[in-house]
């Protein structure tokens, strides 16, 4: 009987289609941002990065809702984030503004592309650190500025300046500072609220003031999206150092009071 038994061929492990389609779409938006910036379409490039952020926020939720979470999806999402929130913002900022530093001499030209590379490298380091600390750190907080938030600060700045027809070449030194500061904040130890503990489920209830706050944010956003995004994400960028340093100072005061 054993000779007549059918031989089972090994099954190849597949991947879940739906969440990875969202991840692929996010990476496509980031790649399009790079192509658009090369062609000088910087507003389109900035918007494409925000589209990537929106899609990036959806792929994980889709995977959890449909029960299609996988280790492949986690790793693929990280690679997509590196393209969309690391390489894309750094190259958009370089093509829009940092490349103009070479007009001040060859040394400044090198500083320009080095700053763009620093931003991309910090985004990669931030993603690698996050992947190794998923099961260790407090989920309510991020350690360091999240790469999508960092990209949002930079791209909302580019979008705002483009809307008011301010050439990036005139802001090359300001862009240099923004790229370096945002990059270093991504690999810092400052704590940023992750918003993962907010009530988002179907049965979760929120105070009425939350709805009112949402309306107060939505109305200005519809009137002037780039500037509202820039203000909101800049405040979030500043919240990390402020909250962390405030917490450390409060801890020192409590420690001094506890001493006899």
TrEMBL record:
InterPro entries found in the cross-reference section: CDP-alcohol_PTase-I, CDP-OH_P_trans, CDP-OH_PTrfase_TM_dom, CDP_ALCOHOL_P_TRANSF_CS
NADP in keyword set: no
Membrane-traversing stretches: 15-34, 111-129, 141-160, 166-185, 206-223, 229-247
Entry keyword annotation includes Lipid biosynthesis: yes
Broad class of where this protein is predominantly found: membrane
Topology versus the membrane: Multi-pass membrane protein
Protein name: Phosphatidylcholine/phosphatidylserine synthase
Organism whose genome encodes this protein: Fulvimonas yonginensis
Lineage per the UniProt record: Bacteria, Pseudomonadati, Pseudomonadota, Gammaproteobacteria, Lysobacterales
């Amino acid at each position: 009987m054993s000779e007549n038994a059918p031989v089972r061929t090994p099954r190849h492990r597949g991947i879940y289609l739906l969440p990875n389609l969202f991840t692929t779409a996010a990476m496509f938006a980031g790649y399009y941002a790079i192509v658009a910036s090369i062609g000088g379409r910087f507003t389109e490039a900035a918007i494409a990065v925000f589209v990537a952020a929106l899609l990036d926020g959806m792929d994980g939720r889709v995977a959890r809702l449909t029960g299609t979470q996988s280790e492949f999806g986690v790793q693929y999402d990280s690679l997509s984030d590196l393209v969309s929130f690391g390489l894309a913002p750094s190259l958009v900022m370089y093509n829009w503004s940092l490349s103009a530093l070479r007009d001040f001499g060859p040394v400044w030209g090198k500083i320009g592309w080095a700053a763009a590379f620093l931003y991309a490298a910090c985004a990669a380091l931030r993603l690698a650190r996050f992947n190794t600390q998923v099961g260790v750190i407090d989920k309510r907080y991020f350690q360091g500025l999240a790469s999508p938030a960092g990209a949002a600060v930079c791209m909302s700045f580019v979008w705002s300046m483009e809307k008011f027809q301010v050439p990036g070449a005139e802001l090359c030194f300001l862009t240099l500072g923004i790229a370096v500061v945002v990059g270093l904040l991504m690999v810092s130890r400052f704590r940023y609220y992750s918003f993962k503990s907010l009530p988002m489920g179907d049965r979760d209830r929120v105070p009425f003031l939350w709805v009112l706050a949402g309306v107060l944010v939505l109305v200005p956003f519809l009137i002037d999206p780039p500037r509202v995004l820039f203000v909101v994400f800049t405040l979030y960028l500043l919240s990390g150092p402020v909250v962390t340093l405030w917490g450390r100072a409060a801890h020192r005061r409590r420690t001094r009071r506890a001493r006899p």
